[in-house]
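tmp note - histidine kinase
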Amino acid sequence: MSANIIPGTGTPHMANCMKKNLFWLLLFLTPLVMTAQSLTNRIDSLRRASGTPMHDTVRVQLLDNLSGVYTSRNLDSAIWYAREGVRLAEKLNYAKGKLYTQNTLAFALAERDLPESMRLYISALAMALEEKDYNAVAGIYYGMGVLQFYLANYPQAIVLFKKSIRIALENRGKLTAGNTSAMLAFAYASMNQSDSACYYMAASEREWPEGITTAFHAYFKGQTEAGVDPNVGKYYFKEGIARFKNIQDLRGLSLAYHRLSELYLQQNQLDSCIYAARQGLQAAQEVRLLRTILHNSRLLVNAFKQLNQTDSAYKYQNIMVAARDSLFSQEKINQLQSTLLEEEQRTKKLEEEKLRLESRTKIYGLLALATFLLLLAGIFYRNTRQKQKANRQLQVLNEEITQQKEEIETQRDHLEQTLTELKATQQQLIQKEKLASLGELTAGIAHEIQNPLNFVNNLTEVSQELVEELKEEEDKPNPDPALRKELLTDLEESLQKVHHHGKRADSIVKGMLQHSRAGSGEKQPTDLNALADEYLRLAYSGLRAKDQDFTADLRLKLDPNLQPVDIAPQEIGRVLLNLYNNAFYAVQQRAKAGKSGEYQPQIEVTTQAANGKVELRVWDNGTGIPAEILNKIYQPFFTTKPTGQGTGLGLSLSYDIVTKGHGGEMLVASTEGEGTEFRITLGYVTETGAY
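out:
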């Protein structure tokens, strides 16, 4: 990170300024093993030193130190000092200084701007590899793993943490290995893998310097133990809170209160949950830590909702939504994906350049060997004619090699262009499939929405007639009270029906708008029974709009105890619409092929919850799928439908949505000539969100 500065003098320990573990030591342990007063004195000393004359490279190290110690207290100041350090290092062309100040800036921005933090880490990784500073490489992999952890991408975070530990231990970076092992334990605990979490927590304690017990150590210990015994976890979180308060580390305080509040919520101790979450939110707001503002406000929303205190829940929901939109907006996610894609392409390009260099080296080696052999032959025979002949042979060889090289490069360019065109075509076909599913849905909506609109129109006319009759009765000298009450009752019932069917039409239109969204959709708790029922009716109505003679026996066996499932409803809606359309197509084809009256098309939709998962089945008694092609149905562009009636992308996209987008399973069982059943399995997911 930066040199140790002797407070009050500004003199750097230059021999130790780039010690292998100093970056992570200052970043994690320096503010944690100090008292609040000693940390304040250190900040004052560093700020006084910044006003004294010193070499510019030392000033870079001083700015880096200031950013590191401000990270736990004032994130704005930490970011400002780190940016100043990067700017000065770039101006001085000070590579080491830029590497460590950029690392510090990336760590601070992880709480505010994930895409920019990832971009800085990737840039720093390239610098660290160029400088062959492998302890810095280990630290950068740790930071990138933390970003993946914040995004709840725990498997990728685990890969990066393990890579960091391996490199750190190979370069005697025990402190970095200890910190990373603690985060690795945290990642396994978040995946409910308690054994692995306990293993790496123990490994972390072995690697930490003997006698040092920091606030973050207690915090990590609490997270690991919470999965085994929540009461033990609460004990360690409270110990961490006390230590964070002692050193005035608001960042750590907001994290510890969040995890403690989460345990109270799990144990239904709502008052304690609200108190801890409010304390964590207050600390996070003082430092402007968007991530912990989001987590603590979400816990307050859940607690107040359970207490039916809607005003308080609404207040904190506004805070939660503002923090979530700032941290995880679609623009931020797109920027992060773009950064990762650019890095992947850059790495791929470097590998290709390496392969080309090795190829050229081999060719040049062969040419050098051929030249050497020809030279020996010329010296041996001392014959000019044979020399000329050898030169002609060498020239032919060079021409052939050049020609072959040109042909290879031409073929490579052609293949790259073809691959680019294929990728573009694939994206167009995927979009076409999505639009096709929207067209199928629109036909059903047009047919389905006609019924409520007809009811609204008819009931409006009836209501007008009732009003006229009521007016006539009121104009009579002796109005009949019983008739008047009866007319008012009929009018009220008519208006209630108008309202009901208007709401029905409104829900159909909203469903169509939700399905037509271009993005992948945000996951939210969804009534899967209602979603399955709605799309079945829309798909059936769409088919009936095209073929009015077609009828089918629709069976719904929906689990009445099914709880809301955390899914992207428009994406799962596309999956359901595709499965329903395929089922209707299969039974329709079998009906056309059979004798009239001998076959009754049937489609059955079943939902069932068991063992923490929810299962949805779509069964039909249609034509079935031949066994020889059953293993190909999820392949892109594979279809059994006639040309022009299917893109071959429906089941492929559906499979990706279920397995990759939602972490579920999608299985199929079919008997040719008898029918097909698709089974989708999804897991219940809590609303705690990404760490």
